[in-house]
Amino acid sequence: MAAPLLLSVKDALIRYSEIPVFENLSFNIHERSRIALVGKNGAGKSTLMNVITGVQDLDDGERWQEQGVTIGYLQQDITPQEGETVFDFIFTEIKDEEKELHKYKVDMIAEALHLDVNAKMIRLSGGQIRRAGLARALVEEPDILLLDEPTNHLDLEAIEWLEEYLNSYRGTLLCVSHDKTFLANITNQVFWLDRRQLKVSPRGFKHFDEWSTELLDQEARELRNRKAIVAQEVEWASKGIKARRKRNVRRVEQMKVMRAQLEADESAYRRATQKINIDPLKETEGSSKIVAEFYNVHKSFEEDGKTIPILEKFSLRIQRGDRIGILGKNGSGKTTFLKMLIGELEPDQGRVKTRKELEFSYFDQKRRDLNPQHTLKKVLSPNGGDYIDVVGKNRHVCGYLKDFMFDPSRAYDKVEILSGGQKNRLMLAKILANPKSCLILDEPTNDLDTDTLDMLEEILSQYQGTLIVVSHDRDFLDQTVTRILAFEGNAKIESCIGGYTDYLEKIKGKKPSNKKTDKKKEVKESAKEETPKPQKPKKLTYKLEHELKQLPGKIETVEAQVKECNELLNDADYNQRDPNSFHETVKALAELEAKLERYENRWLELEEMKIEILNNT
Predict the structure, then answer these.
(1) pLDDT in tens, 184-222
(2) Distance separating alpha carbons of residues 52 and 9, to the nearest angstrom
(3) Which of 32, 271, 352, 469 has its CA 20 to 30 A from that of 565?
(4) How many Cβ atoms sit within 10 Å of the Cβ of residue 137?
(5) Nearest Cα to 180, choosing from 203, 155, 205, 207?
(6) CA–centroid distance for 85 within its chain
(7) CB–CB of 508/518 below 8 Å?
(8) How many Cβ atoms are within 10 Å of 359's Cβ, its own excluded?
(9) pTM of the predicted structure, to 2 decimals
(10) CA–CA distances in Å: residue 425 to residues 115, 420, 452, 614
(11) Is 137 left (phi over 0), alpha (psi -120 to 50) or beta?
């Protein structure tokens, strides 16, 4: 039985200019849904959320909301009010008569998010304000909760707590997040905004890559088929057109329309699937292998009359080519470590030594290097000119902006009008144009869409210099680093070889080994090695001969089934008409192709065995 419908939008049209943001937009939100909203920066995720809340008016279409359903929204930007405490802010939307019932929840959530409820909102950092906004959204407990990048400025402990909390949340959830692991752990449905269209998957974000690849593969097949049809029409139109009757003029016009639409759709498909390509940085030959050394370093700060230890007797050697991931709670010392590495802070005791010729490229999560009044072009080419040096090659600024998913026509837009994700993309474009021998990325994944994240991971996989990444994004750390430094507070730092998953296994501890079982296993493995391999048979057995005769028929049957599946998938409307059946067909096709490969390999194996026996007799 389907869950009750809470909100529905049908055939909606939304336009800010001549080109509509959405056209024929339709979707339903049901009770207890856990929806991941994904799409490139600028695809319309914020607009869709505003449609759900009712803030965004529709130019056409219908929006229906079940009577009494409440909607809460954690937005990106929160403006603190003078004199308002965190406690007051959290209770802003709670009715007076209900405040007493929610007090216990405020304390629990504030503690988990490391918030002081008595602190003044106006004095909080940007990250603390975001956490206060999240606390407010969770305390309100609306029927539909919209979360826009809830993991920004949270440490891993708080993210894991939030996952657990949301999985037990009684209401419906729709979430935008760059954190793939977070989305995979909390969702059971996906809304994908792709080229002004909304595509819906009945499964969670854990299956998004598989599902989106299926859709893009189907689109590629459909474009190839259309291209063949248009080619036939063009050939028809080019042969003896003067001799044709006037009624065929319409067919020629239709051919021109088909060709123009095909070109537009192919261009859109290329934009949707394009990748950032950058040449890897060449490693400096003959330079020292040691990049930096921390030797017996001590560092602490004074706060409210208390001494907060950051580093104590800390020693570390960073070598050329190291890929280090840094994680930890806010205030545990991550930023202090980076500032000492680049020379902005001195240790209280001990020494920090870096190679003299070492150069840093530093991605600062606060974006202090971006001047809001500069244009995109000036950010990339501060000295003027239309060309910039990109890893030793001259590139036109507009072409390079296009590589990072910017419309070249926006080259003269000011930084101040960009979204958070677009600003991060611009910073990455600036840094990666000419990355130095040591690349430091401080929370680079905040506000990035999943496509840009994938591209960043691909770029970093090609980077040959020394990489240091501060991040709370577990999947990103697993994909990009080979060593973890975990700042656990009170000057305690845990080091682990591998990514985040390896670090997690280490801190959870290993199961004690069973010596008797291990000994038996060793004896068993040794016996396997000493057992002589059986000699090849002198002729095929009756069973193998029978199997060989049966295989051609099996191969023919499976080939027919594969052909049937491909014919179904070539129908461009199949997915829209029946998405569940489409998914099952794709899954069945993959299984059939694997089975066909097994049958063909087995037939080849038996045939070769038979030929070898005949040659030896």
Answers:
(1) 999 999 999 988 889 999 999 999 988 988 888 888 888
(2) 8
(3) 271
(4) 22
(5) 205
(6) 35
(7) no
(8) 12
(9) 0.65
(10) 30, 9, 8, 65
(11) alpha
